[in-house]
Structure formats: C-alpha cells, structure tokens
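Appendix B: complex inputs.
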Amino acid sequence: MIIPVFAIKNTFRAGIKSWLNAFVLSLSIVSIIWLQGLYKGMYDQGTRAMIDAELGGGQYWVEGYDPYDPFSIEDSHGKITHVLSEMIKEKSAACILVARGMLYKQGRMHSILIKGIDPEQEILSIPSGILKEKNNAIIPALIGTRMAKNSGLKKGDIFTVQWKDSKGVFDAMNFQVSEVMKTTVQNIDNNQIWISLNTMQKIFNMHSEATIVTIKKDIKPVNAGLNWEFKNLDFLLQDMKTLVQAKTAGASILYIILIFLAMIAVFDTQTLSIFKRKKEISTLIAMGMTKNKVIALFTLEGMAYDILAVIIAAIYGVPLLIFTAVKGWKMPAGTDTYGFALGDVLYPVYSLNLVFWTLLFVFILTAIVSYVPARKIAKIEPAKILRGSTF
Amino acid sequence: MNDKIIETEKLLKEYPMGHAVLKALNNVSLSFDYGEFAGVVGPSGSGKTTFLNIAGTLDSPTSGLCRVLGQNIESLSSRNAAELRTKSIGFIFQTFNLLPAYTVFENIEFPLLLLKIGKDERKKMVADALEWVGLSDRSDSFPKDLSGGECQRVAIARAVVKKPKLILADEPTANLDAENSHNIMRTMRNLNKELGITFIFATHDEKVMRYLKRKITLVDGKVDKDQITEESDKGEKL
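Resulting structure:
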C-alpha cells in the first residue's frame, strides 16, 4: 500500500510539470466523455423520435415489403388479419398503407411514396387528425418540412398525384397540403405524402389492406397471421445504430489525437524523470526497495496523473458537461443529410457507465505508457549510480 | 564466525576498462565485529567505495567470499539482498540523497514504511531519531530548505531510525564544513555507543579519521594497514 501513497505524493509534489500533464490528460477525458455523450444523446434522441413518430413498439410488415426496394413496394400490401384488426380497434395498433406515385407540381415530376394512415390513430405522433376529409373534392395531404423544401410545396398548395392502383390502372387526383409537419424523422418525411387510410384504400383499390401495422409501445407482439411478420425495435433501429456507430468511429479520430498527445506528454515526462532521478532510484534500492517495487512506483507515478486529471476534469469538465446536457448543442445547418432523425439541438447523454469506461480506458493507456519507460529501471546499477555522485 | 558482522576472504572485484581489467579490490580479507566504529581509508580509487558497495549488497564480488550479517552475499537473490538492506543495513551518502519530494519527517519515516511498522510506533521512532540528530524542530521542512549539515543529519536519522545492525557511510563529511563535520561525527559516535550500531566509513577526511577506533588503509585495492587508533578502546593493532 505504501507504493501508491509514495507515487501520489511524488506526482502531486512535482509541481507544474504534473499539472500540465494532468491538464492535457483531462482535456482528453472531457473530450471523450463529451463526444461519446453527444453521440449517445444523438442515438437516444433519434431513437425516441423514430419510436414516437414511426416505429411505436415494433411493426408488422406484410410479406415481401422491403423499404429499400422501391420496385417491390407496388406489391407490398395485404389484407389486415383479424388479429391485427382487433388490435387496431382497441387502439393498440395503427396500420399504414404504402404505395408509389408521381407528384406533379409546376410542370415538374417527383417520384414519391404515398402513405395512408387512419386519421383517428393515436399510436404515432403524426398530426394525422388533419387528414379527415371535409368534402370529396380535394384530398387533404400531410407532408413534412423536408418534402416541402424539396418539392416547393407549402400549406394550402394543390398538387396532382398520379398512381397505379392494385389492378394496374393509372389514375390521378388533386391533393391539397393541409399541414406541413415539422419532424426530425426522415423516414416519415422525405419524398412522401400522407393521406387518409380510407381514401387511399379506396383510390388504390386496396380495401382492408395495409403494408405496415405499427403496434403501441409496450404491447407484446402476437402471431398476426401468415402474411405478416413482426419486426422488433432491435431490427428496426439497426440502421440507426449502424449509422451512429459509423459517425462515432469517424469522430473518434479527434480523441485519438488528444489521447495520443496526452500519452506522449506522460511518456516524455516518465522517460525524463527516470533519467533525472537515477540517484533517487538508486537510493530507494539502497534503502531496501526491490527494482520491481521501484518500477511499480514509477508506473504508479505516471498513473497518478490520471488522478490529477480527474480532479482537473471535475473542476472544469463537470460544469461544462452539465451545461451542454441542459442547454444542448445546436446543430449546424445541413444535418438533414446525416441520414437519421436529428433535432435542431442535440442533448448529450452522459452515463456513469460512459464515465467509468472512459476513465478505465485512459487509466489502462496511462499505465502502459508509464510502465514502458519504467522498465529501464531494471537495468540501473545502483552501485554505479551512487559511485558517480556519492559512493 | 557469528561475532563478525562483516567477513571477507580473498575478495576480488574487477571492472573491465576497455581491453584492460581494473582490480578495484584485490584479495581483500577483512572482518568487522559487531559494534565497531571503523573506517576504510585511502586515496581516491583505492577501492573504499567498492568495498562498501559489496558489504552493502549493492554490488557483488568477482570472486572471493563476503559474509554480511551471517549471509553470503554472492548467493543472495536480489530480493533477499533488498530484504537484508531493509532490515539490517543503513546507508549514509556523501550528497545526502534525501528524497526531495518528502519532508524531513517523511524522509526519516521511509525505511520504517518499508519495514511495515505501525503508524504510532513509526511516529515515535521518527521523533526519537530527530531528537538524536537535534532536528526535532525541522520535521516539516523539505530538504531544499535545509543546510548541508542539517541534510546530513537527516540522512543519519534516516539511516539509524530503524536501528540497523550496520551503517555504511561513504565520505559523510565531504560536503560539510569543519564544524558540521565534527557535529556529525560526534552524533554518529554517540549513536554507536548508545545503540550499539556498527558504523563503517569510507573516507579520506582527516576529521573523520580522528573519530575512528579502527582504520583500514586500502592502496590500489589491497589492504595496506589495519590499525587500531590511539583513541581505540582496545588499544591493540589488528
């Protein structure tokens, strides 16, 4: 137990050199926690938004539905089974019918997805209530902000949509933008319009059919019938997880550089320290410490920078991290292109787990970097060193 | 055999010097009793320091026998040698070699920590050691705040605090003025008398030699003279 105490004393009393090393280390610690917290917040925020607006507690997909294959969408519809109907009646599920169409606006043509949703549904946080038809002349449609931006549509605009129904007959009608919804979830926004489910089933000749049935959060999925397969949130959020992981890996270059600089500082200090303190090392050996104990002492001295770094990081890092967690981090323009739901402001999420693993990671690295130069102590011959200045 | 704290027989220590070999110790056969206050004297390069290094288990001989406190040091593992130093040998260095990051108290306490002595006992032993060397009022000072004489007295306190059987002191007064040298030597002679600690010096300082009860003169690695000094209790030449 005495070796850690000596190590801490030596480091804490070594003056500005220790504080500088510890400050650089603390920068790495705070940066890693902040960046990881930011990505954790990004994932949590995106996941929450997707669950609320798109995924609910999971989805039943009709056989053959593949959101990434636009050519199969045409055939991706099927009769809603009795089990699913019951769930929908009990407001435990909401069904969505998905089909392809062409939007004509000011002489331009856009390929879009048309999605039908029950205006009465309460499962998804989509303002579907405004899709209730007031008259039969024009079909009310709901679009998102990205769709509005890309297509040039705004609230009240009338546009023409052409589609091919289940029998292969082309048809077209005028729709009117009832609302432009602000959403961070691109999957319910990009190149798509939402209309009433009944209307869509009628105009597409797909009576009592749907493509997706989203269930309420915390509802246990049941066997919905032959043509319907349940996709849980792990599956549905896999893309999101992969994207965040890719972004996290990309950003890790910053803290790899910071950690590298901190480790260089610790390594340099340790190497210099061992060179300068050969006499002290020899004295310790003369007093009865084994070389292994002296190596342990110097390794722990290097690791004691971590303790100083944690203290420094706590002084400026904790208020900084709390501030960013409360006030959030305003996202720059262009985050639409990130490929997943991002709000205007990102709120980092810091967990004890994150802090623990970050500190452990830095501690292990520092231990290695401190141990490597300390191994040289094994080659020191105290008799020769002490002879130079004393014996 | 058992009444000897150090015994050497035909001790040889060679150092390679390019293609040549330097014999720092050449067939040195000596023995020291428990409680001696003796010195190995001689000019620079005579082998004094090498002798102390070997006796202190910090170095090993090229050949010959060296028994320290009943243990053959050639066959000691580095761990056992460290244990022997921790328990039974104290060192006093010319340049004091105090640990700069520690206070006077902590420097003196260090050997006791290695011996895993309890806190209360440690505190008492350090206080005693400080009193022996007359530095009770400087226990919280750091080495940088002490004079050379005070530093050496701390070094002595550090060496004697664990009451070792043997203290090896190499040129302990070399960095001190005359007054401090005498003070230091008087302190060590008193400790030798009061605690029965064996002191062996390596020195070429006349001031130190005056206090020695036995002087062994080395010349070119060989024992030239081994004499009991005039102040000797025994009064006989070995």
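The mean pLDDT of chain B is 89.
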